[in-house]
Design brief:
- By secondary structure, the protein is an alpha+beta fold.
- It has 12 helices and 15 strands.
Amino acid sequence: MFGFFGRILKIDLTNKKAVITPCPKSVYKKYLGGKGLATYLLQKENPPGVDPLSPENNLIFATGPFCQSRLWGGSRYGVYTKSPLTGFYSESYSGGKVPEAVDAAGYDAIVVQGRSKEPVVVSVFPEGAHFFDAKELWGKDNFETEKEAVEKYALNSPGYKKGAVAIGPAGENMVKYAIISNDKWRCAGRTGAGAVMGSKNLKAVVFQGDQKRRLSDTDGVAAYSKDFSKTHIKSPAVAAYRERGTTMMVSLMNTIKAFPSRYWRQGTCDHWEKINGDTFHKKHEISPHACAKCFMSCGRMTKINAGAHKGLKLEGPEYETIYAFGGLCMIEDTDQI
């Protein structure tokens, strides 16, 4: 079936086994894309009333039919599970470059089941998966874990795309809002999926491969993508995101009194001009940064030029970061945010 690999990888952490299973075409037709497929698998595999932090709660990684294609916005993976934070259905998404490595492994979804007795790293590739002891990584932060996991456990195969997703101490300790990160600063940050990884003693997953989805009309997709880029690359919205990223929303949301402030009690704050996009870009050294095959480049590669954090380099901040610290917590200093 075009747009899909037709394969699901089931990883049993309890018994250290990985099994490749086919998926019926009827499922792909009924449950649209990576989100639809993963939601179907979660409902099918999760026992009713399952404890989110128990071995029986499945953790599913999935990419969609656009991933690795030339279509704008396709470099995303999703994580699906039962949320330890809410007790409900959980979906969280992340971009960057790693989603293409997830996709290149050649599966429409990777279903992680059970719990390892000891910390483990799983390395996923087109023929299955390998399991590695992760005791030496336990306790390390996301940055170190991601870097070391790829260096130590990725296959040395020519032409393979490689990348990893990882948790830090928050996920290990099952903090209910813990994230899963990739590309250092990209995060599947909602609903506590990192805590579910931690509950399974799963420190990181390395993805690699050279697989690509078969398209029904490769030339048509290429022509559409080229035309779409030409049409939109100079649009005011794209230009605004490239120039200011999501930081531009601080001014907009304060103007319409919808900027979360004082822990959701207000829709604006008096100091918003001190923390808006213009101020961030004037105070710090910032350049646009893009996910794979994206012409918008809304990410901000930031270097702090003064203050206690002088010299710090990171990607961000996003609008959510600014309202969470600058609005909800009423912090007025961009360096601290």
